Each structure stands twice: as C-alpha cells, then as structure tokens.
C-alpha cells in the first residue's frame, strides 16, 4: 500500500519527530509508514488523515 504521508508532512513543514509526538507514536514509526515498511492501524491512519485535513483514502491507497 502506498501513501503520501511524507509529501503531506513536508508540505506542512513538520518534522517526523513532531508528527510522531502529535500522533503519540515514535519517529521510527512515522519513518516506517513513509517508506511503506509499516501499515498503520486504522485509528492511526484516521488520525494522520485528520491531522493533514484529508481522507484516509487520499492518504493511503493501492498502487
């Protein structure tokens, strides 16, 4: 599954550490999500989408 978390984070000018703190996860978790090595739980995916004011479907999608 692909995602645009890195692009959204970069556009918002926020660090991985700051996003991780806002989501209540580690920076390594954010890095793993961005590189596609980790598929977040549904609650985390929803939280990320809400944080960036987008939908889960726009943030995470099949390639």
From TrEMBL:
GO terms for molecular function: DNA binding. It holds the Pfam family HTH_3. InterPro entries: Cro/C1-type_HTH, Lambda_DNA-bd_dom_sf. Keywords: DNA-binding. The keyword Nuclease does not apply. Gene3D superfamilies: lambda repressor-like DNA-binding domains. Residues 5-60 form the HTH cro/C1-type domain. The keyword DNA-binding applies. CDD domains: HTH_XRE. It comes from the Bacteria. This is Helix-turn-helix transcriptional regulator. It comes from Aeromicrobium terrae.
């Amino acid at each position: 599954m692909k995602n645009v978390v890195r692009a959204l984070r970069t556009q918002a000018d926020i660090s991985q550490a700051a996003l991780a703190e806002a989501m209540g996860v580690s920076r390594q978790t954010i890095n793993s999500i961005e590189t596609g090595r980790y598929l977040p739980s549904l609650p985390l995916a929803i939280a990320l989408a809400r944080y960036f004011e987008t939908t889960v479907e726009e943030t995470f999608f099949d390639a």
